[in-house]
Write a structure and sequence with these properties.
This protein has 155 residues and is α+β, with helices and mostly antiparallel strands. The chain has two domains: 55 residues; 81 residues, no CATH class. Helix content is 39%, strand content 24%. It contains three helices and five strands, in the order H-H-E-E-H-E-E-E. A five-stranded mixed sheet has the order 1-2-3-4-5, covered by helices on one side. Helix 3 links the parallel strand 2 and strand 3. The two termini are 35 Å apart.
């Protein structure tokens, strides 16, 4: 799925421009123009932009949004089987389960090294103590099976 048709079109037009610039660069070397080496830089940079736009537009995957969920930052990810996200202060109790599910759905499976193929996703909040210190508390946990692409909320 393309991120934006405009980005895909920009990649195509930059590809055409880099082809035309390549032909102009070859002509500049044949004729012996003084700025031929500058054309090499401009041509290669334009080709790099074309390839980058095309690759991003082809590989982009939009984020999944779960109704009732709140956007939260991931504060710990070991690259394997554990991801921890931080809940904002005052998060409504009915938003906890959708939020941890949204974080689990937006995990990418590529590059993860999990011995069991399951990633635990925890949503943690902070409890403020009487002495001014806060302690972390797990609000909810979900498990995402990367092999079967399933999510299970842990009670």
């Amino acid at each position: 799925m393309a991120a934006d048709p405009t980005l895909f079109q920009a990649g195509l037009w930059l590809g055409v421009a880099s082809g035309l610039l390549a032909a102009l660069t070859v002509a500049a070397f044949i004729v012996g123009w003084g700025f031929r080496f500058r054309l090499v830089g401009v041509t290669s940079f334009t080709a790099l932009l074309a390839i980058s736009c095309w690759a991003f537009s082809v590989s982009y995957v939009p984020r999944i949004s779960v109704p009732g969920a709140v956007q939260v930052p991931i504060v710990f990810d070991n690259g394997g089987d554990l991801v921890v996200a931080a809940a904002p202060a005052g998060l409504a109790p009915e938003a906890v389960a959708p939020t941890v599910e949204q974080v689990a759905r937006n995990l990418r499976a590529s590059g993860r090294v999990s011995p069991t193929g399951v990633v635990r996703v925890r949503l943690r909040g902070l409890d403020n103590g009487d002495d001014g210190r806060s302690t972390p508390r797990v609000l909810a946990e979900a498990q995402r099976d990367l092999a079967h692409n399933t999510i299970t909320l842990v009670p």
